[in-house]
Structure prediction request, 271 residues.
Amino acid sequence: MHSPASVAPRLPIWWTTITGNSYIILGSLVFSVLALLTAWIPPRGSSVQYWARCWARGFLWVTGVRVTCHADPAIQGSTSFVYMANHQSLFDIPVLLATLPVPALFMAKRELFRIPLFGWSMRAGGFISVDRSDPRSARESFREAVRRLQEGASVLLFPEETRSVDGNLLPFKRGGFLLARKGGAQIVPVGIDGTLGVQERSSYAIRASDVVVSYGTPRPPTDPDPAVDVPQSVRRAVSRLAGVGLGEDSSLEATQGEEPEATRDGGGHQS
Prediction:
């Protein structure tokens, strides 16, 4: 596992739990309003991205989470990227929002967009909603993500599509790799180490801790050498950057809502 350069002072769990969960409600309300009030400022989504980063940094500060970030210098704003990160905790999202070298759109489940103010601000920022229960809607979301990549935006997703319980990587879904290929975007492997110790799945308890996030070297979605398995190469890179195991099953799984290979013109989603 990685070791942060410095150790964050440990706040008591009762304090970080109360302040963190209160911030999720009140902080989200305040920053959602600010995002909606300024969403009209061009280019679309830039002000929402700014407030989202402010929200994330405030959330990490009140919970005593100190983040060390390493990013490959090749990640520049002139290129579209599909960031692919491991997923351990709800804290992965603020950690990524606070550190992304190039701002990116999230693909999130549709239910979040129905939350008053919060969901409205996500939509105003150009974030892409996904309905996991409707394959046709999932394909439409995929096409929207491809279009945004072709327009120059970047997208962030969790190719496991769910949080890991023990930290080891789960099988990756194919949707993100298809997205990068059709959108002409570079893939950036991202490793997050430490968020599982901040907040575990199905727990409200929040612990002040240290987190390391590492943005690896961008790579094209295809390789001229047919012997190179790009998805598995990216998966191994994420494992190395996060300092976690690959798990027992390293196979690549189809994304829910994917079209058959013979007729596919889009499919797959992330949240």
